[in-house]
Design goal:
heterodimer; A: about 140 residues; alpha+beta; 4-stranded mixed β-sheet; 5 helices; about 50% helix; globular; B: about 240 residues; mainly alpha; about 85% helix; about 0% strand
Chain lengths: ~140, ~240
């Protein structure tokens, strides 16, 4: 257990160094980052929390990127017909947090983050973690 | 280290079976599956004087859950059914029918409505009746149906965490089975606790039959109450 945590931390450090080395080159290639909280009409407490903390993280740490349009955040009700194309595009299977990256050469990739669900009982930890994930995405990782 | 940090470390373990077990434990303690597990524990205590039966009900309930999860995972991993299609379908319909289903079962258990089933004299019919009377088929079916009712958070755990694990390992049987065992573990553990505590009460009361009669009413009320809870969170 303890060794598992040490490994996790050291991996993050390695990833952090990798970002520092290549960020300038890769940032140029990222056109837009979409962060979507998918949910149904009837939401559970955890589902609402995951979405609210994500929104607060984006507004707190990435206000400039939101203003410039580089980051788009949204709560998407998957039960509404007008959102069905977006649900299909991301492949959301219910309440979930997704990060969709558009590169300047028109490539799109979407990734679901499930780790946030483990952090909803600690807002600070959640926001610090998600901030790191978004920074990595903006850096092209 | 907090409980959630520990659960995250285990649930994201590089060993798929360990990860599946801990994702299953998360499922077992999350609100919706917890409600169905409480119902199952109540069901297991129906014939509380018979300790073997109580434990068997807990085990069969877990096997019922296992059947559902293995079927869904196999359909996705091996048949290639789209995860999103099956996930959205089950979330739309599974949970909606669970509330009315529980209320109907609760009313039936109260014996307010009597059913006359035609007599079946063949051996298979007799065996079916014997098993049904013991509540074993019922326990298995409860497991199947409860597992089909996905709440938003249980869908996150199953479709968002477990299914990607099963897909990457190419395993539609073992990983969902371990997950199902963990989701039913509280029911098995409570069955054992019930057996131990009831044998003590039995010595004092020595009136198990009267106790069982009251238990049936309590269980029926638990079914109806949890049915109302589901209707309230989904329909209202």
């Amino acid at each position: 257990m303890i060794s598992g945590c040490i490994n996790q931390e050291s991996n993050n450090e390695i990833n952090g160094n990798a970002i520092a080395d290549t960020s300038n080159e890769r940032t140029i290639n990222i056109d837009k980052l979409e962060i979507y909280h998918f949910h149904g009409t009837h939401q559970c407490y955890s589902c609402i929390t995951v979405g609210n903390y994500a929104e607060e993280t984006v507004n707190t740490y990435f206000a400039d990127e939101v203003k410039s349009g580089k980051i788009v955040f949204g709560h998407i009700n998957g039960d509404l017909p007008e959102n069905s194309d977006l649900v299909a595009k991301y492949g959301a299977t219910g309440a979930s947090l997704w990060l969709g990256t558009y590169t300047k050469d028109g490539q799109f990739s979407a990734e679901q983050n499930t780790n946030v669900w483990y952090k909803i009982d600690n807002k600070e930890e959640y926001m610090t973690y998600l901030k790191g994930v978004i920074e990595q995405k903006l850096a092209g990782n | 280290m907090s409980l959630m940090t520990f659960m995250e470390a285990m649930g994201t373990s590089n060993i798929p079976l360990i990860a599946a077990f801990f994702i299953g434990l998360m499922m077992a303690i999350s609100p919706c599956p917890l409600a169905t597990n409480i119902t199952a524990i109540a069901y297991a205590s129906k014939r509380i004087g018979n300790s073997k039966h109580t434990l068997l009900v807990g085990v069969l309930y877990t096997l019922g859950r296992m059947f559902t999860y293995v079927c869904i995972a196999s359909l996705i991993v091996w048949v290639g059914v789209n995860t999103q299609t099956i996930a959205l379908f089950l979330q739309n319909y599974g949970e909606r029918i669970l509330g009315p289903f529980l209320i109907i079962i609760g009313i039936l258990m109260l014996d307010l409505i009597k059913f006359n089933f035609s007599q079946n004299n063949d051996k298979l019919g007799a065996l079916k009746e014997k098993l049904a009377n013991k509540g074993l088929i019922g326990a298995f079916l409860l497991g199947i149906i409860f597992a089909l009712a996905f709440c938003p958070f249980s869908a996150v755990l199953f479709f968002g965490m477990l299914i990607p694990l099963a897909i990457s390992a190419g395993d539609g049987i073992l990983i969902p089975s371990v997950f199902a065992f963990a989701t039913g573990l509280p029911v098995i553990l409570f069955s054992i606790i019930l057996i131990k505590s009831v044998s003590k009460i039995e010595k004092i009361m020595n009136k198990v039959q009267i106790f069982e009669k009251y238990m049936r009413y309590i269980i029926s009320i638990i079914f109806i109450a949890i049915g109302i809870y589901y209707i309230w969170i989904i329909w209202l």
